[in-house]
Amino acid sequence: MLSDLLDESLVLLDVEASDWEDAIRKAAQPLVDNKKVTPSYVDDIIKGVNELGPYIVITEHVALPHARPESGALESAVGIVTLKEPVEFGSADNDPVKYLFPLSAKDNDSHLGALQSLVELLSDPDFFAQLDSASTPKDVVDLVHAKEGRM
Amino acid sequence: MAKTYHALVCCRAGMGSSMMLKIKCDQVIKEEGLPIETEHGNLDSLIGFNGDLVITMSDLTDELNADSRVPSAVGITNIVDKNEIKEKLSAWVAEHAE
What we know:
The complex is a heterodimer of chains A (151) and B (98).
Chain A: H1 2-5, E1 11-15, H2 20-33, H3 39-52, E2 57-59, E3 62-63, E4 77-78, E5 80-87, E6 97-100, E7 103-104, H4 112-122, H5 125-133, H6 137-150
Parallel strand pairs in A: 1-5, 3-6
Antiparallel strand pairs in A: 2-3, 4-7, 5-6
Chain B: E1 5-11, H1 17-32, E2 36-42, E3 53-57, H2 58-65, E4 73-76, H3 82-96
Parallel strand pairs in B: 1-2, 1-3, 3-4
């Protein structure tokens, strides 16, 4: 379940970011602070986008910043971050990005259930409407719990 | 018996986007009864891959189509858009049907 990998310390709301790199670094910082990933993991996310383009922007207005597990994933985790002002990632179809779901994946299978829930949440317009009206990290965690309870 | 095509769903890390893309592709394949079976991996999984098709994020498609190990690459722009996945995979199957 996504709820198992998410907690309030990994949620940031209305973050101010100057560009895509700043947005990724700020969104991933709680994962570093909570020892879910090493700083080199975040560097590898940035490197991936620089080398291959904005492939982490997976649907409209949504980025899933993640890197190779061997670059410094310590524990599987997912954060949820909203930006005060959306930023351009250079994605032809899905820009600008307003929501980031930084992901740390320790191994291939343990987070499969969480990704399944995440895909369903991203397919749910109501989820984003409610995320927009959340005012605290606790609201966001409660929202995910409620959504998963109904899945 | 009709042929089943073998597809590798991959991204750079083989962890996040490719896993989610595989989940969504599998839903569409099942709903539409498309003759495709999927596995997932990272870009290194291309080494030794001898299937028919690679499915990836659209920003990676050009890179993959330029790779001689890739038989054919389909890029998905919006991984939660089942219609896009359905149209692109159905078109690929129609194009490759014998």
